């Protein structure tokens, strides 16, 4: 079970995320603190590798990124002359994909990042928990929104809507990997992606498993009993 503390704005008491009744009872606002990711060390890294296999090797990934960068570059070439382009990286998964993509682009871009999680509330619906907001203004810019994987797509859609609310003229959505299934948004909602993967737990190339192995240069598919989502 993952545990970390959050501060209640009403009384400043630290409450474990697994023990929210205090905050709910007195109506406190939860102020999130960075997740120390205790789950990251709950599984042995070598065991995770042993229960997985290579789905796409490093050469296949690199070739796909080359094609992806050409497609993204062509799309950015359609942006109105003089309009600033902001590459907005969705952390933490999107950072490796973004580095590989952006170093191949010819256009000048301003790089910033955003970190958002979504949590479900049966009373108020889905809400965004902002861990990091962009430092630059999005007003009058074209935003290139970059993530590692497009799964159900709801978080990316929420960030896109927020960017438009902040004054972005357009938002181009892209991810290195698009997972093929029928849940969430339609697969063609995403503007551009590099690779298609089956509906299974994949990791590497920015995608983690229990906080591990984001840095792998290839993509693995997990077949162990403890896979999630």
List the helices and strands and how they pair.
Layout: E1 5-8, E2 14-16, H1 21-26, E3 30-31, H2 45-50, E4 52-56, H3 58-76, E5 85-90, H4 94-102, E6 110-121, E7 125-132, E8 142-150, H5 154-165, E9 170-179, E10 192-197, E11 202-203, E12 219-222
Parallel strand pairs: 5-6, 5-8, 8-9, 9-10
Antiparallel strand pairs: 1-2, 1-3, 4-12, 6-7, 11-12
CATH C-level class of the largest domain is Alpha Beta
Give the N-to-C terminal Cα separation: 16 Å
Q: In percent, how helical is the residue content?
A: 10-25%
Looking at the overall shape, the CATH architecture of the largest domain is 3-Layer(aba) Sandwich
Counted by DSSP, the helix tally is 5
Oligomer: single chain
Query: Might you state the CATH topology name of the largest domain?
Result: Rossmann fold
Shape: globular
- Which structural category do the helix and sheet elements fall into? alpha/beta
Q: State which percent range the strand residues make up.
A: 25-35%
Helix/strand order, N-terminal first: EEHEHEHEHEEEHEEEE
Strand order of the largest sheet: 7-6-5-8-9-10
Rg calc: 19 Å
* Main sheet: strands, sense, barrel: 6 strands, mixed
Number of spatially distinct domains = 2
| Uncertain regions spanning at least 5 consecutive residues | 1-41, 120-125
| Mean pLDDT rating | 79
* Total strands: 12
Plain-language structure description:
The protein has about 230 residues and is an alpha/beta fold. It has two domains: about 1-35, no CATH class; about 55-195, Rossmann fold (3-Layer(aba) Sandwich), CATH 3.40.50. About 25% of the residues lie in helices and about 30% in strands. It is built from five helices and twelve strands. The strands form three sheets. It has a six-stranded mixed sheet. It has a three-stranded antiparallel sheet with strand order 2-1-3, with no helix packed on it. The chain is globular.
